[in-house]
């Protein structure tokens, strides 16, 4: 298929599953009492989001169980060894964890906006935002505990979910600590990205395999698929910030550079002797010109830093797609390959 | 036994298990990397604490499995249906959850001190404190996932742990919301206390019964034992604040009243028509005199509010001790009764 047809197909697949996931969120995370707490907990979930992680989870389930994403029975996936398991609940649990991390990260980074609306601590207050995140945290485990099927598999899924959450906290802690480091290496940065972002993709892809009683080999391959494509996604984010025109990005191109945000690209350039801090020294997002950004990008291109990051994202994506060889050959496994491509090709 | 001998016995039992719990915390929650995150996560745990919830958990385990608190094999409790389960890990998990709630509550209440040291957000910073709490949260689930034994029981324990955490968040949310309410009833207050504090005692007592494969009747009785004695503990706290001399309390007697903290006592008094807000209107903790507090306490006594709270604490304690009838008659079950008494008799 052409790039365009592939993207159309994956967008349709994401859109179809997003609707199903949104319906399931309303059922699995109802507006309980105290209402203000649950409103705050659901605020970011209701504000939107592509549901990429739940989509990945559902596609792994569809590929392994060979079922289609439609109808009322979508929640009951047949396991390899007989019985049924509610993979939609597992997908919701992953999205609920993602939402908890966004709420707490926004407090730590003092970010005002999220998904086009106020961050929870802005819309409510910091105490409510802390508690909303904490509530989503335990709700995610409650939801995962009730997927049905073999208790041993559910326990393993919860073990994976909890160790993933620990890694996310470690990654966020490193991210905060890195702000005051001037000797950071690309390897350290990649380790941080893996923990902070990629492991939740890994869990999203691996947990359905665990719950469906798949072999360890399949579980491990799905985890690697998720981690690698999740890492590629983050790295490509840094590339796109420098290479996509501002009007397509929906924000100033090069804003990471203007705001002195360290990325894989700047860390590589430093190693090549580039004075990264001097690239856009006097600029702000409001005052910087396209010509200044072009000049900065040229310097980064000249030492191969942009290619370095782009190639790493492409390599990780190729690796992640190879992991899919353990899956049956069906539409869902094809879509997982498309999804990996989409993660590094998308606009903003 | 006399009151004094009982207290001596229960303090010795708590002290003995505290040492074992502290050793287990060091093993189950090691100082990992990033070190600053794990230091912050362990900071409140290392600052002390009586380990009352783990002690209750271990005593339920000892009572049901008929084992003694000693030796290297203490971690391997025999289950009713054969096999072994690490109840010490379950006890540590409960304490780790307790510690997470303290760290986040201190941020929300902007409390400077905890267990005689700085609160985590004061000693480190708010971001680190949020993350430290989040890390303990997932660590608690990781630790609980690895207790061994029957996976169905472990899953049930994790289900109970997660629903308990949700209730704790709800309780804390109510507590914050109640600060701006002037029409609070004693029933609403008791509901808040149950969720915010007592359910974790319930989980601490019930989870060992779940893990040891005990009958539902025993599990339910242990949960009620924990919730009722935990509620009694909180109610008695409010009584002691008014009735124990300042030198024994280690802080100004009546400080709740001076600081306009609503308690079961003040809510009862309001229903009796007492102008609670006028009791110590102009005072601060620094300026209030013993005579002023005596006068306020007299007014609360005159309408029966202190007796109301004291009797409720005693009734709940008596109820909680009746729950222990389902346990075998051994030293550990006797100690659980003593523990319930201790919770409402202790000094500060």
UniProtKB/TrEMBL annotation, chains A, B:
The keyword Transport does not apply. The keyword Hydrolase does not apply. GO terms for molecular function: geranylfarnesyl diphosphate synthase activity; metal ion binding. Its EC number is 2.5.1.81. Its cofactor is Mg(2+). Keywords: Magnesium, Metal-binding, Transferase. InterPro entries: Isoprenoid_synthase_dom_sf, Polyprenyl_synt, Polyprenyl_synt_CS. Gene3D superfamilies: Farnesyl Diphosphate Synthase. CDD domains: Trans_IPPS_HT. It comes from the Archaea. Belongs to the FPP/GGPP synthase family. This is Geranylfarnesyl diphosphate synthase. It comes from Halohasta litorea. The lineage of its organism: Archaea, Methanobacteriati, Methanobacteriota, Stenosarchaea group, Halobacteria.
